[in-house]
Amino acid sequence: MPRRRLSEDDKRDRKIAREIETTLRRETPEFKARERELHRKQQQRWAKVNPGCIAEAQRKWKEKNRDYFRQHDRDRYAADPEKKKARSRAHYTANRERINALRRAKTAAKRAQREAVRKPAKKIRAAIMLPSKL
Asked: Is 120 strand, coil or helix?
């Protein structure tokens, strides 16, 4: 049996029905979860191939959103304060020489500034006067 030809109105109606069905299907939680998972996997594949781009993008994002990133760190470390202490100790041990050199330079700069501002000392006359001839 031959298929009957659809009129233009029938074609338009079917097209609209398909669009509505697709739109409704996209609104379901299962569809959204599947799309998120597919997108996440795609991002992971791209990140494995382009590690330098990811590092650069993350650095730029951190610079642009410093407040958000700092708040994120605060929240994360508030949940685990021991983690922050460990990270701080690790940073200090890894950079001890540089940190101490910066401290010494800062102290020397403050000392030089104080010396520059200090007035020259006045000579103090002898505390005990020589007996004068009366």
From this structure: coil
Looking at residue 130, what is its pLDDT? 63
User: Exposed, middle or buried: residue 77 (CB in 10 Å: 0-12, 13-18, 19+)?
Assistant: middle
How much is the pLDDT for 131?
Answer: 63
Interacting residues of 117 by C-beta distance below 8 A, sequence separation 6+: none
Q: What pTM value is reported for the model? A: 0.34
Percent residues over pLDDT 70 in the chain? 89
DSSP helix/strand/coil, 122: coil
CA–CA distance, 13 with 18 (Å, rounded to integer): 9
In a domain, 125, yes or no: no
134: its two tokens: 């009366």
CB-based contact 47:54 (threshold 8 Å): yes
Domain that holds residue 36: 9-64
d(CA 26, CA 82): 44
Domain count, the chain: 2
Q: How far apart are CA 101 and CA 92, in angstroms?
A: 13
